[in-house]
Amino acid sequence: MARSLTLPEHQPSGRSTHGLSSTKFKISSSDVGFTQSIERRGLVAEYPIAYAVGSGNHAIAYLVRVGDYLFQSPISYYTRRRVWSMAPGFEQDRLPDFTRPVTAECLLCHTGSVFPVDLTLNRYKPPIVGELSISCDRCHGPVDAHLRKPSRANIVNPARLPPKARDSVCEQCHLSGEARIANPGRRVSDFQPGQELEETFSTYVFASPIESSAEPSSIKVISHFEQLRKSACAHNSGGRLWCGTCHNPHNETSDPRTYFRDRCLSCHGSDLAESHPRPSDNCIGCHMPTRPAKDGGHTVFTDHRITRRPEPGMDVKKDRLVAWRAAPAAFETRNLGLAYVAVGERDHLPHCLEQGWRLLISIQEPFANDHAVLTSLGVVYLRKGLVHDAVRVFQRALELQPGAAAYHVNLATALAEAGESEPAIGHLNRAIELDPSLEIAYRRLVEIYGKSHRDAAVDDVFRRYLLFRPQSLSAREALRGVQHGAAYAH
C-alpha cells in the first residue's frame, strides 16, 4: 500500500508494438524525466508520465496529465515478465491513445487523497494528489486525535469491529463486484472505517457461479472476497475468517511459504497429520494457486477459494444480480435497478437493461428528483427507441444538475435521435464549454454534422478538440481525412 501511487522515478525503458492497430510505443527513462511516445500512421505524440500506479508486485500502470485532467496510458509494464505490453482493456482497441479518463473512484484505492472537481469525470484541483500512497486513515479512520494522544479509544482497529464493519474496511478496495451504487446524496469516497459499506454504497455481484471447463480460469483481479466466500474455510469459520486472519497489512513477509503455512496450521494443525496424504511446506501452492485474471493483462493472481483439491476455475452466469450485503431498505430497489442498468449498458446485456428498467419504473415516483435514477431510465428509453421519454427524463436530470457536462451530452443524444439537431448541437457545445475533455461530446457533434455533410463544421470540431489535446492521434488522423475528403468516422 505504501507503493500504491508513486512519482515515475527509475522506470524501465523499452519498446512495444500493438499488433491489432500497428501502434508503436517507445518508453524513455532518463535523469530529466520519464516519457512514453506513441506512433501510428506517420503521426507521433509524446507524453511525460505524471504518476506510476501499483506496487509493482504484478504490474505498473501510468497516468498522464493534460491540463488539470488525468488519463491512463495504454501501455503498462508487467514486472514479473519484465515486458511492456497493452494495459488491461486496451488489447482490442483499434485506436489506442492516452484518452482513458482516470476517475476519482479509480484513484480512491491508490492514493491517500485526491481533489476531484465536482460534476467532472477526471478533472482535479491542484495539486491533484494530496498524499501519494494509501495512508493510515484508509483503514483506521481519522488519525488526528490519535496522533495527539495515542489511545485505543480514538482510533479504529478493524480487528475489533463487528464482522460486517470489519470486512467493509478491506472491501472498500478489494471488492469491486459488477457494480457499485452510491446511496442518494452519497459518493463512494464518503465511506469511513468503522461503518458498514452499505451506509454509503452497495456492491452487486452475479448470483450464479458456474464451473469453467477450461483452464486457465477467469478470476478477476479485484474479486478476493467473492472467491473467499466460496471457500469451506469461510463457511466453517462462523464469520471469524477475514483478511486479517492471514494477511498482515503493515508488513510484507519475505518468506510467503512459511508465513502462510503457519496461518493455515493455526486452524488445521491438529488434524493435518491424519488427513493430509503428504504434508507439504507450501499450502498455498496447492490450495490457493495463482491463476490468470481476465481483467489483469499479462498477470496472475492468487485464487482465494482455498480448494481442497485442484479445481477448474469459476465463472459466472450473467443472469441475476444480487447485493453483496442488503442495501438499506429505502434504497434496495433503487440501487439494484441502477446496478442492472449499469451492468447491462457496460456488457451489452439487454435482459439486464430490461430488468433494471422494470425496477426503476416501479419506484420512479419516490425518486422523481434523483438524477441517477432519471439518467438510467433515459439510457434504457434510448435503447428501447422511446426517444421522447428519454428527452423528458434527461431534461429533468439536467435541471437538477445544470453544470454536469455529461448530462448535456445525454440530452443532446436523445434530441438528435428525435430529429432535433439544432437543440442537440447547442447542448453539445455547452458540454464542451463545461468540460473540454469530454471526447463523447465532440464525437456526437461530428455525427450530427456528418449526416448533413457539413465538412467545415466537422473540421472545426476536430480543431476545437485539438485545442484541448494537441497531441491526439485520432483527432489529427480524422482532421487529415476531412481535409482529403476521406471518411472521418473516428
Description:
Strands 1, 2, 3, 4, 5, 6, 7, 8, 9 and 10 form a 10-stranded antiparallel sheet that branches. The radius of gyration is 25 Å and the shape is globular. The protein is α+β, with helices and mostly antiparallel strands and 490 residues long. 38% of the residues lie in helices and 20% in strands. Helix 15 packs antiparallel against helix 16 (421-434). The longest helix is centred in the C-terminal third of the chain and has 16 residues, at 332-347. The protein has helices spanning 104-108, 137-140, 144-148, 163-174, 224-229, 232-236, 243-246, 256-268, 272-275, 283-287, 332-347, 350-362, 371-384, 387-400, 405-417, 421-434, 439-451, 455-468, 473-483; strands at residues 5-6, 14-18, 23-30, 33-40, 43-53, 59-66, 69-72, 75-78, 83-86, 100-101, 113-116, 124-131, 179-182, 201-211, 290-292, 300-302, 314-323. The two termini are 39 Å apart.
Keywords:
alpha+beta, globular, 19 helices, 38% helix, 490 residues
Q: How far do the termini sit from each other?
A: 39 Å
The chain-level structural class is alpha+beta
User: Quaternary state, please?
Assistant: single chain
Percent range for β-strand residues: 15-25%
Helix content: 25-40%
Count of beta strands: 17
Largest sheet: 10 strands, antiparallel
Task: Report Rg.
Answer: 25 Å
Mean pLDDT: 90
The low-confidence parts are: 212-216
Give the overall shape, derived from the CA principal axes: globular
Count of DSSP helices?
A: 19
Brief summary:
The chain is α+β, with helices and mostly antiparallel strands.
